[in-house]
Design brief:
- The chain is of the alpha+beta class.
- 28% of the residues lie in helices and 33% in strands.
- The chain has 3 helices and 10 strands; from the N terminus they run E-E-H-E-E-H-E-E-E-E-E-H-E.
Length: 186
């Protein structure tokens, strides 16, 4: 029988619905300068080998899906954590929140806020018309601590060695210089 008759597809041909007639895509095997190209139709194989080929294809598909479903590791190795409706960037930050919540309940701190943004330099436009974005710092926590009669404003950030980046250190200096606020690192 000639290829292309009675609804069969020619090698490498794809049907309108994307079906290639049960053919396995061309396989290329390279070795010592020789290249082998084979077009194999699964229907032409004995049942034993059809089952073997289908099992191998299913295993490859499963492996492909498993690789794409793995969550990406975070840049600093932290694990995002939640407490009730709150979400934290790390377990350490969540533990610190628990400590501060206990202090808030005890009355040693007040006005606890999370993820407070400070503008260190406002956005502006250069004489050439180029827009320069604002420089902002996002603190993990801010609160007032009782210092025996007066309340001291505290800006706190949970840091580890990898998260003490050059950008963070620059913003920490700008906070002290421009706003007069020191960042307490935990």
């Amino acid at each position: 029988m000639l290829p292309g008759t009675r609804g069969e597809h020619l090698p490498g041909e794809t049907h309108e619905d994307g079906n290639n007639g049960g053919q396995v895509p061309e396989m290329q095997v390279a070795g010592k300068g020789a290249e082998i190209v084979a077009n194999i139709n699964l229907a032409d194989l004995p049942p034993k080998y059809q089952a073997q080929a289908l099992a191998k294809l299913a295993k490859q598909e499963q492996k492909k899906r498993a690789v794409t479903q793995q969550p990406a590791r975070s840049k600093y190795g932290n694990v995002k954590t939640g407490r009730d409706a709150l979400h934290f960037d790390s377990k350490k930050e969540a533990r610190r929140f628990d400590e501060l919540a206990a202090e808030l309940a005890a009355g040693t701190i007040k006005d606890l806020r999370l993820q407070v943004e400070f503008t260190l330099q406002a956005a502006y436009t250069t004489p050439d018309g180029e827009r320069v974005r604002a420089i902002r710092y996002l603190a993990d926590f801010t609160y007032y601590r009782d210092t025996g009669g007066s309340w001291e404003y505290v800006v706190e950030d949970v840091k580890s060695k990898p998260t003490r980046t050059r950008v963070y250190l620059m913003k920490k200096k700008m906070m002290a210089d421009r706003l007069g606020l020191d960042i307490t690192e935990i």
